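Protein in question quoted in full.
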Amino acid sequence: MKNPFLSLRRQWIEALLAAALGALSVQLYLARAPAYPTHSEMMLKAEQGDADMSLRNSGFPNTFISTIHLDLTSPNHSVRLVWSGPQATSQDTGPYHSSPGRGNGDCDCNDLAESLRNKSNCTPKGTRTVEAFSDYMGSATAFKFVTWFHANREIAFHSHPQVPDHPASLGCVRLNEHAAPVVSGYKSNSFSWLGSEDSGNG
């Protein structure tokens, strides 16, 4: 007859070996995984800015974008640029199609206070200033030409392969590959969101 204590001991040893192998596998995976920047590192990067400014217009700094207007009305969510300076009339002003924040759950992104709430996934309404520029957004290297306007919430204008006719982002403003460089490649002083009263976010 088999000794039940030996059987239990064997099961206990096998369980310990399985746990040890599992922990070792996790450590090996983490050691080989790409080192993505932390939230703090990404925010510092946004605050300092690290964008290639070779795309700036030839008249910079005398010619620059003074205001970026974002109308949150679907389906276009139009982005328009206001230029200042001696070459302002020859610059591209839009409108550009965009896709803003879709909101989180039942939150109302048309409400000003709700749009400003952290983790609401809404594009913040009101007037903000450009905080910095980056070549890409953190570990999401496919999102390029980043113009940060709410770095603490990781919200910015950036390029995206999908810019639908409805709000689809987590708060950022998606632009296509043509529009995003125009915004991020030039000096911008301020933003003005239109439609906090009469334009909906959907």
Observations:
- Residues 1-33 form one domain.
- The radius of gyration is 24 Å.
